[in-house]
């Protein structure tokens, strides 16, 4: 089968590899679609999350159950079921798992979703509705991350909110913010097409950080009060500091993206103290998959999901991702 690999330092390659067989407690998934995430690219270019070659890539998937390994009889899964999956198998035995933090499992085993097939633990596979559009549900995992962010920084009705970066995860998060009752929702995004998309989705204001003074615009929009909640989802070090500058008193700044491992954010703790503001970060949580599956039909999926590229032309999809034009690029793993 074909599988996109982190082949060597800084390089992705499409390899021909054996179709995996499910072991005890595992399920083999026939991948339908897998969406590109900045994390996939950053694993290759920056080695984030401990990534080292050779390594199969891809973690935002949808597909169908192709085979069940021994010991999966009680999983409720059947061959042919439409499914999505948490990106790693967790052991359930380490201290983090036992503390109810499986996202930090010390023995996590990732799968390669940019493949025609992959195997993973049945515990991490989630059934989708029979009539699910598998292309849409390939963004279940990033929707989980967006829900996690909203849980960590709950928005009260009428609170002012800014979001920096309308890439794939930013577009999903913007959808969630617009459903939350937030007011004066403002996007900060250098790409004109993405600013236009945000306004079409319902954002009230759009700031171009390349040509406008972000702090001055934020002051004008909020009457000098600053935003109640600021989400920084671009992953750009240049965007990190302005997020702190535009948050208001008793506000919250949520750093959502994966930043370069060696990037250190300068924080003036006196300013933060004076505002009584809080800094939060976001990872993920497998327990949120059922909620994400429920939420997905309410998102503007036709605007978030961009071009679909065959797995056989995966490198063209990577080039489209780097263009920054589309929120989400999806690989069709059947073609």
Can you describe this structure?
The chain has helices spanning 38-46, 95-98, 140-152, 168-178, 192-201, 214-221, 237-245, 269-275, 289-295, 301-304, 314-323, and strands spanning 2-8, 11-16, 26-35, 55-56, 60-68, 82-85, 88-89, 109-110, 117-121, 125-127, 160-164, 183-188, 205-207, 227-232, 247-255, 278-281, 305-310, 328-332. The chain is an alpha/beta fold. It has 2 domains: 2-134 and 300-332, Medium-chain alcohol dehydrogenases, catalytic domain (Quinone Oxidoreductase, Chain A, domain 1); 144-281, NAD(P)-binding Rossmann-like Domain (Rossmann fold, 3-Layer(aba) Sandwich). Strands 3, 5, 6, 9, 10, 17 and 18 form a 7-stranded mixed beta sheet that branches. The chain has a 6-stranded parallel beta sheet with strand order 13-12-11-14-15-16, with helices on both faces. Strands 2-1-4 form a 3-stranded antiparallel beta sheet, covered by helices on one side. Helix 3 (140-152) packs across helix 4 (168-178) and helix 3 (140-152) crosses helix 9 (289-295). The longest helix has 13 residues, at 140-152. The model has no long low-confidence stretch (mean pLDDT 95).
